Amino acid sequence: MGIILYGAPLSPFVRKADVLLREKGVEFELESVNIMPMPDWFVEISPARRIPVLRDTDIGKEGPVGTIPDSSAICAYIEKKFPEPNLYPADPYEHGRAVWFEEYCDSELAGAIGMGIFRPIQFNRFQGKEPDVAAAKKGYAEKLPKPLDYLEGEIGDSGFLVGDMLSIADVSLVCQLAQLALVAGPLDTSRWPKIADLVERLSATDSFTPCLVICKKIVKQDTIDLTA
Q: What is the number of alpha carbons within 13 Å of residue 61 lying toward its C-beta?
């Protein structure tokens, strides 16, 4: 059996699948794909032209057979194929809530961080330009508070988003906020204490650390204080 995860470690969506595989103790190969421009062989297995894509070589070793695109579809597949430990609650309502938070973090929060903050800073750096700090500060002030305020209010006394267990909801949240931390440092613990605590706890685990170590080697510059 062989699992290959295609993508770039700096992607929070690749990170999500990476973390899930590590949480379940699955051996896999992370194969980096340069998507600018995207190679033809990857376009064939990623119709939406996005990363990540997972390949299960037990099913197919080349072409679309054996592949699953999209991080949410990949994580659902991982959960079914490797059910222990479970990262999707068994209770139907809690399962639905966990999937909802995954979607919310992958869309609303990802948009606020990726387009509003990470891109103006780090994409400019990759292109040899100065970070657009003004745009990033605007994104931080105007786009980030709404999703974070909502998610802060949803974390229970257990320290998790759903029930008393780590779930795909928490993994999705921390994977997105790790992206923010790379360029802007840690969250304001006085405003979002529960989220900040969750990020600190999970980022230090064996499941999150390997990908974050690689990302910190890619993003070598100092973080920028966007609250000033």
A: 3
